[in-house]
UniProtKB/TrEMBL annotation, chain A:
It is a multi-pass membrane protein. InterPro entries: ABC_transp_permease (IPR001851). It comes from the Bacteria. Keywords: Cell inner membrane, Cell membrane, Membrane, Transmembrane, Transmembrane helix, Transport. It is found in: Cell membrane. The keyword Transferase does not apply. This is ABC transporter permease. The chain crosses the membrane at residues 24-46, 58-80, 87-105, 111-132, 139-160, 180-200, 231-252, 258-278, 285-307, 313-330. The lineage of its organism: Bacteria, Pseudomonadati, Pseudomonadota, Alphaproteobacteria, Hyphomicrobiales. Pfam families: BPD_transp_2. It comes from Mesorhizobium qingshengii.
From TrEMBL, chain B:
This is Sugar ABC transporter ATP-binding protein. Pfam families: ABC_tran. It comes from Mesorhizobium qingshengii. CDD domains: ABC_Carb_Monos_I (cd03216), ABC_Carb_Monos_II (cd03215). Gene3D superfamilies: P-loop containing nucleotide triphosphate hydrolases (3.40.50.300). Keywords: ATP-binding, Cell membrane, Membrane, Nucleotide-binding, Repeat, Sugar transport, Translocase, Transport. It comes from the Bacteria.
Length: 337, 515
């Protein structure tokens, strides 16, 4: 009997402790990313006030963040509907190559090259969507397959970087500062993020996307054409990837094979960091922006403090695992609470 | 304390409590289970039976309380610990791997004899064959499970439990898809196991069965154990009273709507067939009536509802809406034609748990909520106004329309799902198990809402396995059995006895035995 009373007391104590832990974990999973971002800013500002805490450096961080933010918010759309897109990095590289090629080889005017490039990205995305919804290939497989094919097609199109024959006006797009002295990519990022946020939160299609991601069967029974919604999400991801690829080519002044492949992991890290922000385990645009900023501020700080470049992948990979872990924990606790 | 073990019951459940999203699913349940006895566990849907079983199985972690087996505490939330303690669970879905044969399934997860690192199926099979013999399996164990009947699969599951030396086997609705003779054979096996010292925890809605088979019956209501009695101390009437908390009310005949068959039906089903589940079903649904579809689980009712709502396409036959032939290719087309389904599985097919009440109500009428017609922007104001209107109309209890629907009780979630269709131009609303997992009070409110909808001109088809619900709700009842409509009841003929009679197999059915 006494033994039983003892265990009961121990159980109650562990229950109290675990509920305290749970509250802390949920809090951490909601605000942890924002707190982490602020802590990084405070730490870098205190330790490198002259370098980190300057207008020039902040603009630098923002323009670095802008390309990642654009591609990552497109990726957010596919995750909102419960899918996945591993092709975005390859799409960005491929389109970045094609957009320069259209100018250099085909002699297209800049605006037409860009329009073609963005439409091409959206079309590749839509194709991914069709493979996933109509042919019903798992998204991981189909997008990886399509992305891998694009690498090869890109190589067939041009086996060496396209650096000559690109008009100066094209490189000026990414390097220029048309509004308030802000780099153009930052302005473009702001426009894209606002547009995607409005579509996701304020329109029919956005509500339907959230419904599809929230409960596929329920969405279907509500009369939502689930396949179309998913294809739209993939097309948006493709469009955003193409925009990032185009801006990167403009920034580099050349179309280079595999130039944007690395954005894949950055985008995933950002989106999953974002999913652990404010809303537990849900993907949303503002979260993605915070995720992107964490990565950009982190990279910036690492380079200011002279960390060797190979620290960047450690930071990036580590933060991805941390983010996914936090997101998973948050979801589990949200479900059991 | 070994001394306690020899004196007390084999399994002792004390104060077991579990809540989900603030709702108590299990409220300080105490239960003793003895080896060699058949324990019946009954209660309405949502009474806590499955939560209790899930806690025992270690799939759900109880918030409070303890389970002691032969004097030892059962570790919480560990399916492995539960298995090692000798507990086996057979759920309705029968967790078997279809493309494995019976032998592989019986031995799944059990230690096997290996030779040079490879499984020696012949020698491993010895124990499995002995178990199969105990339950009277006569088909070869090399048969693939996908080729076995449901009854034969049950035997495989029981053998699987026996191979693991289970001291207790919990069975969830074992006879739900068995024929009369098959059920009888299962009962014989259960009695046999019980005399061999196995404890049986038998969960069923079929009260006659429970009264006939079980040594002791425990009744759960709203998560609490409200009655426990030895065989003979309870009769069906007492059992029903314990389950629903009051005597069964005779339905008020004045409320029954007399169907007017002279007018054109709202919806007609003509010779609809689909696979082996629906075998040529025809009926008409008229304005003003609540038409209900009764029958046992597996009779083909949900499949029929899915065909009507465009989830699946019929192999043969057609539908008519307002006298016009209708071809439904998918759910979206059904919804646009005005046919909506409130599904059986509220959580997995109905609500978007992470979203607000307003979101869940408005999702099927987004076009009507646009700020400016023609532009795809949803007006927050219109959305809130519509949601608030429906919340008030249906009496949905929620702190606000912005609250997450996951925090609401099952009954209020269900009302929200009905609300989803009230402004959507719905002509035919199909409700599959409208009050499953809903408490009695909410059930009445849901019934009132359904009746009001029917009287306002919306065609209503309600599907229910709950015979009492059919007598309370329906103006006309069609009973399905094995994919066919076996009878129609109207007015004073709508009684539990008549429905049950039409639902069950006749005793002189062609079915043979199961093995």
């Amino acid at each position: 009997m006494m033994a039983q009373a003892g265990t009961a007391a121990k159980d109650a104590a562990s229950l109290r402790k675990s509920s305290w832990k749970r509250t802390a974990l949920i809090w951490l999973s909601r605000y942890g990313t924002i707190v982490g971002l602020l802590l990084m800013v405070v730490f870098f500002s205190a330790n490198a006030p002259g370098i980190f805490l300057s207008r020039a450096n902040f603009l630098n961080i923002l323009s670095q963040a802008s390309l990642t933010a654009i591609i990552a918010s497109g990726l957010t759309y596919t995750l909102v509907v419960g899918e996945f897109d591993l092709s975005i990095g390859y799409v960005a590289s491929f389109v970045g190559l094609i957009v320069t090629g259209l100018m250099a080889y085909q002699g297209f005017p800049i605006w037409l090259s860009i329009v073609c490039a963005l439409l091409l990205g959206a079309a590749i995305g839509a194709f991914n969507g069709v493979l996933v919804t109509k042919v019903r290939i798992n998204a991981v497989i189909s997008t990886l397959g399509v992305g891998t094919m694009l690498t090869g097609i890109g190589f067939t199109y041009s086996s060496f970087p396209i650096a000559t024959g690109i008009p100066r006006a094209f490189t000026d797009i990414a390097l220029g500062r048309l509004v308030f002295g802000l780099p153009n990519p930052v302005i473009i990022m702001v426009i894209v993020l606002i547009a995607l946020w409005v579509i996701l939160n304020k329109t029919d299609i956005g509500q339907k996307m959230q419904a599809v991601g929230g409960n596929l069967e329920a969405a279907r029974l509500s009369g939502i054409r689930v396949d179309r919604i998913k294809i739209f999400s993939f097309a948006t991801a493709g469009f955003c990837a193409a925009l990032t690829g185009t801006l990167l080519s403009s920034l580099l002044g050349s179309g280079t094979l595999a130039a944007a492949d690395g954005y894949l992991l950055d985008a995933f890290a950002a989106v999953f960091l974002g999913s652990a922000t404010l809303r537990e385990g849900e993907f949303h645009i503002s979260g993605t922006l915070i995720g992107v900023l964490i990565l950009a501020v982190g990279f910036n700080g690492l380079s200011i403090f002279g960390a060797p470049t190979h620290f960047q992948p450690i930071f990036k990979g580590g933060i991805l695992v941390l983010a996914v872990g936090m997101s998973a924990l948050a979801r589990r606790y949200a479900a059991s609470a | 304390m070994p001394s306690a073990a020899s004196v007390g019951p084999w399994m002792r459940i004390r104060g077991l409590t579990k809540s989900f999203a603030g709702e108590l699913a299990l409220d300080h349940a105490d239960l003793d289970i003895e080896r060699g006895k058949v324990h019946g566990l009954v209660g309405a849907n949502g009474a806590g039976k499955s939560t209790l079983i899930r806690c025992l199985a270690g799939v759900t972690v109880a918030d409070e309380g303890s389970v002691t087996i032969a004097g030892e505490d059962l570790q919480k939330g560990s399916p492995r610990a539960s298995e090692q303690a000798g507990l086996a669970f057979i759920h309705q879905e029968l967790n078997l791997i279809p493309h494995f044969n019976a032998l592989q399934n019986i031995l799944l997860g059990a230690p096997k004899v290996t030779r040079f690192g490879m499984i020696d199926w012949r020698r491993s099979g010895v124990a499995a064959r002995a178990a199969a013999e105990r339950v009277g399996i006569r088909f070869p164990l090399e048969t693939k499970v996908s080729e076995l009947s449901v009854a034969q699969r049950w035997l495989v599951m029981i053998s699987k439990a026996l191979v693991r030396d289970a001291s207790m086997i919990a069975m969830d609705e074992p006879t739900a898809s068995l024929s009369g003779p098959e059920s009888e054979q299962l009962f014989a096996i259960i009695r046999d196991l019980s005399t061999q010292g196995v404890a049986i925890l038998y969960v069923s809605h079929r009260l006659e069965e429970v009264l006939q088979l079980c040594d002791r019956i425990t009744v759960l209501r709203d998560g609490r154990i409200v009655d426990a009695a030895e065989r003979g101390a309870l009769n069906k009437k007492g059992l029903v009273r314990a389950i629903i908390g009051h005597d069964m009310r005779p339905p008020d005949e004045r409320d029954r709507f007399a169907t007017d068959r002279s007018q054109q039906p709202i919806f007609s089903v003509r010779d609809i067939a689909w696979k082996s589940a629906v075998k040529g079903v025809s009926f008409d649904l008229y304005q003003g009536e609540v038409l209900a579809l009764g029958g046992l689980v597996g009779a083909g009712r949900t499949e029929l509802a899915h065909l009507m709502a465009g989830v699946t396409r019929p192999d043969a036959g057609h539908f008519e809406l307002d006298g016009k032939r209708l071809d439904i290719a998918n759910e979206a087309q059904a919804v646009r034609a005005g046919i909506a389904l409130v599904p059986e599985e509220r959580r997995s097919q109905g609500v978007m748990l992470q979203q607000s009440v307003a979101f869940n109500i408005n999702i099927s009428t987004l076009k009507k909520l646009r700020a400016i017609p023609g532009l795809p922007f949803v007006s927050d104001k219109k959305a809130r106004r519509q949601a608030e209107g429906l919340v008030a109309r249906l009496g949905i209890k929620t702190p606000s329309v912005e609250a997450k629907i996951g925090g609401l009780s099952g009954g209020n979630q269900q009302k929200a799902l009905i609300g989803r269709w009230l402004n959507a131009g719905t002509k035919l609303l199909i409700l599959d198990e409208p009050s499953r997992g809903v408490d009695v009070g909410a059930r009445e409110e849901i019934h009132d809402a359904i009746r009001a909808l029917a009287r306002s001109g919306v065609g209503i088809l309600a599907i229910s396995s709950d015979v009492e619900e059919l007598t309370l709700l329906a103006d006309r009842v069609l009973v399905m059995r094995e994919g066919r409509i076996t009878g129609e009841l109207t007015g004073a003929d709508i009684t539990e006895a008549r429905i049950i009679e039409l639902s069950y197999h006749d005793s002189n059915d062609e079915e043979g035995d199961i093995a």
